[in-house]
Amino acid sequence: MSEQTASDTPSSQDHFLDGPKLPPGITRFWLIRHALVEENARMCMYGSMDVPLCPDSLIAQKPMYRALAARLPRPAHWFVSPLSRTRETARAIAEAGYGTVPLKEEAELIEQNLGTWQGMRYAGLHQHLTLPPHPFWPVGATECPPEGESMIGVCARVGRLLDRLAVTNAGQDMVAVAHGGVIRAALAHALRIHAETALHFSVQNLSLTILEHLPSGWRVVTVNELPGI
């Protein structure tokens, strides 16, 4: 019987991150929040409505797109939500130097459906709430808008998607251009925390969040990393 060498012995130290370079062969998600939407849309609760990006910010933030293009891995599988703002953000990153890649649409990446409250101005929302609002989100995590979904529901569907993609793309890099609520839901799933807690994360437009799926569990590498800053 041959002796087992130290390199053959699994160790938690194999998964320590001791430098800026991320090792290959890890199931890794690169989650990007879409670019800033146009000004009129920002005045209301747009949720899963399909609203356009702000044309001025697309020009002003070109350095951030170039930084993202340089930061993101190659090769990688690319995913977007059914909403045009994620596809247009992905296209801007491609044009900034990453290069054109196939974009696969995943329905589970869509932002929280706020039901009949979508399109409502924030100032009038309080009279419709049945629970206290979250300090950093328009509604509490357990609040379910009429004909919509709660953040609890968003966390469930995003968690199912991450688990599925982690299996079908094991050991590979995946870039997903999604939404603020979706990325917070992904953090809730990775950290096994309540949706109400996950809503305390700041997830800015064009920010990068990196999650890894390892045999021992999920690891959060970075949250709300702003490219080029």
Main sheet? 6 strands, mixed
Tally of extended strands?
6
Do you know the CATH topology? Rossmann fold
- Tally of structural domains: 1
Strand residue percentage: 15-25%
| Total helical segments | 7
Pfam family, one: His_Phos_1
Protein name: Histidine phosphatase family protein
GO molecular function: phosphatase activity
GO cellular component, one term: cytoplasm
Features:
His_PPase_superfam, six-stranded mixed beta sheet, disordered N terminus, His_Pase_superF_clade-1, globular, Histidine phosphatase family protein
Structural write-up:
It comes from Acetobacter vaccinii. Residues 1-14 have a biased composition (Polar residues). InterPro entries: His_Pase_superF_clade-1 (IPR013078), His_PPase_superfam (IPR029033), PGM_Phosphatase (IPR050275). Residues 1-20 are annotated as: Disordered. With 229 residues, the protein is α/β, with parallel strands linked by helices. The chain has seven helices and six strands. It has one domain: Phosphoglycerate mutase-like (Rossmann fold), CATH 3.40.50.1240. The chain has helices at 39-42, 55-60, 62-71, 84-98, 151-168, 180-191, 195-198; strands at residues 27-33, 77-80, 103-105, 173-178, 208-214, 217-225. Strands 3-2-4-1-5-6 form a six-stranded mixed beta sheet. Strand 2, helix 4 (84-98) and strand 3 form a beta-alpha-beta unit. The chain is globular, with a radius of gyration of 19 Å.
